[in-house]
Amino acid sequence: xxxxxxxxxxxxxxxxxxxxxxxxxxxxxxxxxxxxxxxxxxxxxxxxxxxxxxxxxxxxxxxxxxxxxxxxxxxxxxxxxxxxxxxxxxxxxxxxxxxxxxxxxxxxxxxxxxxxxxxxxxxxxxxxxxxxxxxxxxxxxxxxxxxxxxxxxxxxxxxxxxxxxxxxxxxxxxxxxxxxxxxxxxxxxxxxxxxxxxxxxxxxxxxxxxxxxxxxxxxxxxxx
Length: 224
Ligand SMILES: Cc1cc2nc3c(=O)[nH]c(=O)nc-3n(C[C@H](O)[C@H](O)[C@H](O)COP(=O)(O)O)c2cc1C
Known about the structure:
5 helices, single chain, alpha+beta, binds flavin mononucleotide
């Protein structure tokens, strides 16, 4: 009788301990998870006249180490591929069949982030500075921002591969031109780049097998 009572108490104690432990563990995991980087609201009432911006659009490969403010970064990402029609979720860049399959990754000295257009925030992915790996040219490491345009093929449905292979680069190219125009408007230097060691970069970025790197684009203030 006494033995059964003791066993009951031990079982109760074990249950209590396991519940308490699970609470502590979930708190620890939550504390370790990096928090998203909230971006200020994009300023969409500024910018120079479109025709002047088109006149000034060009590629530049010499960057100052000066960082972009959070506000400029916010405006840049919104211009690149932000949500401009919140009711429908449409973006500043069109995409074939509205796949919205091009993800914009942001490589900075602080680490690698993924632009979450819907929430307009940056999801931290890596703490390492991978800027130098985003291209094969030496100037790439000097740019404070290197955007990487990655196709998420899981969003292209059952499209035949020849369609996917045409549309994904087109969609990335349009985002790149949005960035060119924003940079021309803001006096920033930029160049879109296809010269990338894709297998090496995909490995560093820990991409899935159904993702493909299309282009990268360096952005920063021009070197004085
Ligand atoms: C798809 C594409 C890939 C490019 N790849 C590179 C590249 O890897 N490295 C680079 O320095 N410039 C690259 N460029 C930039 C071109 O060299 C540049 O646009 C061209 O010389 C014309 O200069 P502009 O942009 O000033 O008119 C690329 C441009 C495009 C459209």
